[in-house]
Specification:
Elements: H1 3-7, H2 10-13, H3 22-53, H4 70-99, E1 106-113, E2 116-120, E3 126-128, E4 140-142, E5 147-154, E6 159-163, E7 168-172, E8 178-183, E9 204-207, E10 210-221, E11 233-239, H5 242-256, H6 261-272, E12 299-304, E13 310-314, H7 317-325, E14 330-332, H8 333-337, H9 342-348, H10 355-359, H11 371-389
Parallel strand pairs: 1-5, 4-11
Antiparallel strand pairs: 1-2, 2-3, 5-8, 6-7, 6-10, 9-10, 10-11, 12-13, 12-14
Helix pairs in contact: 3-4, 6-11, 7-11
């Protein structure tokens, strides 16, 4: 890195660009930064000239200043507007691209606590954020060169998921799901091209079955979440191959079990939901889960429970979660107009019980108490709809 790059611009001010989208973020950063440098130098130079040109001197008295100059006012309004338009365009399109994950993503559930992270993998492995004697497998592990989506949720307060090397950051909001995605290449730690940041980042993970080469990237919570906020960090480990990643996760599975969140949700469904909610067919007593498959990820019209007016919503995890917690708040327009459907009429009248209300009626329902039960049910419903799509 040159001295110029070290002192000015993203190369010297930000950590290395170690994801496929980081360069675009840095490009916009540099664009804004250099315009700021240009105007800073220009304004300071003009101020210095005016200080010298209009300094107090013997024989010169202060002259009245003009209160208005249309030409100057147009210049300082039009030029900034012209510069801001591309900043807005590139910033908005880049934001949208980072929010819309590709369809082929490897998905990992990430749950935030006070003050730790939990990572749930498609294999069923559940890993914490830090290594302990009781938890030798830890961290967020991802395949190299593949799109990865992290589905974010919070167990308590507002948190934020941030990986500086990837230029990825998103709030983790209690009571809803958010997500972020990235694609991180792998570079052999023994090669000259390898760039380790921070320098103390581990390059190898040793387990009882061998040693795994990894590229490690710091993961932080960047939303103040209480007294333990500063300790809420972890690592993102990019493995040298997807086979190595699966081998590592298999070791974790063998240690702690193999149930995925959707599989836990399937057990809860079979014990507590199947008598009323069908996975397919025609729902009579309650809505069927499989009906969502035709619209998953799409926008539909629902009746808002508060205003009784039609509104647009996207069918997905947040829609399902709100429908579970408050069934009458978002009633599908087709069901609302179908007066022959008993459960639709009950929902209109606010008579359909929420999952929380049912969770305290008997011992069998106690499995729903707490956020994990809700997450499992939502994950199960999503998996049902993916199966219906195939």
């Amino acid at each position: 890195m040159s001295l110029w790059d070290a002192l000015f611009g993203s190369e010297g001010q930000l950590p290395p660009k170690l994801s496929t989208t980081a360069a675009e973020v840095d490009w916009l950063y540099d664009y804004i930064y250099w315009w700021c440098v240009f105007f800073f130098i220009l304004i300071v130079a003009v101020m210095a000239y005016f200080m010298w040109r209009y300094r107090r001197r013997p024989g010169h008295s202060a002259q009245p200043s003009p209160s208005h100059h249309l030409g100057i006012e147009l210049i300082w309004s039009v030029i900034p507007t012209i510069l801001i338009i591309p900043i807005f365009y590139w910033g908005f399109t880049g934001f949208v691209a980072l929010q819309q994950a590709p369809a082929d993503c490897y998905k990992i559930e990430v749950e935030a606590y006070q003050w730790s992270w939990k990572f749930r993998y498609p294999t069923g492995a559940n890993l914490g954020n830090k290594e302990t004697p009781d938890a030798p497998y830890f961290g967020l592990h991802v395949p190299p060169g593949r799109n990865v989506q992290v589905i974010l949720s919070s167990d308590n307060v507002l948190h934020s998921f941030y990986v500086p090397n990837f230029r990825v950051k998103n709030d983790v909001v209690p009571g809803r799901y958010t997500s972020a995605w990235f694609n991180a290449p792998y570079v052999d730690p023994d090669s000259p091209e390898f760039e380790n940041w921070p320098p103390e980042a581990p390059t190898r993970l040793e387990t009882k079955n061998g040693i795994y080469k990894v590229n490690a990237h710091r993961l932080f919570c960047t939303e103040y979440c209480g007294t333990g906020h500063s300790t809420m960090d972890s690592w993102v480990f990019v493995h040298e191959s997807e086979e190595k990643l699966q081998q590592y996760l298999k070791e974790a599975n063998d240690l702690w079990g193999k149930e995925t969140l959707a599989e836990v949700g399937a057990e809860l469904y079979a014990k507590n939901c199947a008598s009323c909610h069908l996975k397919a067919g025609q729902g009579v007593v309650a809505p069927i889960f499989g009906r969502l498959s035709d619209n998953w990820g799409k926008e539909i019209t629902v009746i808002d429970g508060a205003s009784n007016q039609p509104v647009k919503v996207t069918v997905g995890r947040d829609y399902v979660l709100q429908s579970i917690q408050d069934p009458g708040s978002q009633l599908a327009l087709k069901d609302y107009n179908d007066q022959g459907t008993p459960w639709a009429n009950n929902m209109q009248q606010g008579l359909y019980p929420t999952l929380e209300a049912e969770s305290y009626k008997g011992t069998e329902k106690q499995q729903f108490v707490g956020k994990n039960g809700l997450d499992a049910i939502v994950a199960f419903i999503e998996s049902v709809n993916k199966q219906e799509d195939k």
